[in-house]
Every structure is written in structure tokens, then in C-alpha cells.
Amino acid sequence: MNEIVLRNAIDGIDIKLLDLLQTDASMSNQSLAEKVHISPPTCLRRVKALRDNGLIERQIAILNTDKLSAIQGYGLTALVEITLDRQGVEHLEAFEARVVQDRAVQQCYRVSPGPDFCLVVYCADMPAYLALANRLFTQDANVRNVKTFFSAKRSKFQLRIDLKR
Predict the structure, then answer these.
(1) Average pLDDT, stretch 143-162?
(2) Backbone angles phi, psi at 121, to 5 degrees
(3) How far is the C-alpha of 111 from the C-alpha of 105, rounded, in Å?
């Protein structure tokens, strides 16, 4: 659906649904319908339309990396800035296609100005990060500069978008 049609098809109830779902996607349809004051069948139909139109990309569980690392062993989060030697569209797309396939890469952003990419990566430990750096950066002749910041503490993590009502 094109952007103009989509913009006109979304109303205040849809915005409320999106707002509630991004806070708790496990909420039952019945509960969701009650909160936005519509019938459960209408709610179900609207949420399906939001999914079909791509406004709800997917529903996932967000894991607590601190607690998980205590169970599985050490966990390492790194923020990585990448600058490529050549920034032609084909070079940017080739690098991006390669890094987004790697399971350790949690997020990938093409940015400007400054570096070409910023990545959020999660590895079990420093040897795992070094293997990732070798696999994605060292072996790529087009990677000019890599600057990595290791997270000492996660102060905030949120995926919530502030929606206009």
C-alpha cells in the first residue's frame, strides 16, 4: 500500500493499538479491545490490517542480556563504527548485505556524516568478538576503519516509538 493511502487509512484507534502493542505485544485481543473501546472482532481485524500493511513488522520477545549472560556465561555488547574505503552504492550495499546476515549483528545502521555504518553486536566473549571482527572487517579489503566501543553497562534499552495521538 502506498504511503499516502496508508496515512489516510490509519486513525486514532489504530494509533492507540500500535501504542499498546509496542508496549506489550502479548496482550490478548480481548484486553486490547477493551483498552481501545472496540469489539474484539473489530480489534482483531484492525490488528491484522496493521500487520498486512507493514506497520507491525513482527512480534518478538526481548531477552534480558544481563540475566542471560549469567546463565550462559559472559556476554559482550559492542557498538561498532565502520568506515569504508569506497562509498559507491554497490560497495555500501555489498557490505550491508554481508553484515546483516551475521547472527552476532543485532542492529545495522547506515549513517551520515562520519562513519558509513554503526553496528550493535552481541558476542559471547572477546574471542567471539575477535572472530566476528576477522570475519566481517579484517577480511574485507574495502573496510578502512573500525572503531569499537564495548558496553560496560546498559542504562536504557527501548524499542518504543513515541506516537502522535
Answers:
(1) 91
(2) -125, 150
(3) 16
Bridge partners, residue 71, by sequence: none
Dump pLDDT digits (tens) for 87-96.
999 999 999 9
pLDDT at 72: 82
Dist CA 95 CA 55 (whole Å): 27
pTM as predicted: 0.80
Q: 132, 135, 140: which is closest to 116 by C-alpha?
A: 140
pLDDT at 22 over 80: yes
* 117 pLDDT higher than 80: yes
Ordered domains of the chain (ranges, CATH): 3-52 (1.10.10.10), 65-150 (3.30.70.920)
| Closest among 58, 8, 16 to 164, alpha carbons compared | 16
- The runs of H, that is alpha helices, within the chain are 3-9, 12-23, 29-36, 40-52, 65-72, 89-100, 126-133
Cα–Cα distance for residue pair 43/31, rounded to 1 Å = 10
Whether omega before 40 lies within 30 degrees of 0, making that bond cis, reads no
* Cross-strand partners of 78: 121, 150
Whole-number mean pLDDT of the chain? 91
Cα end-to-end span (Å), the chain: 22
Total number of residues shown for the chain: 165
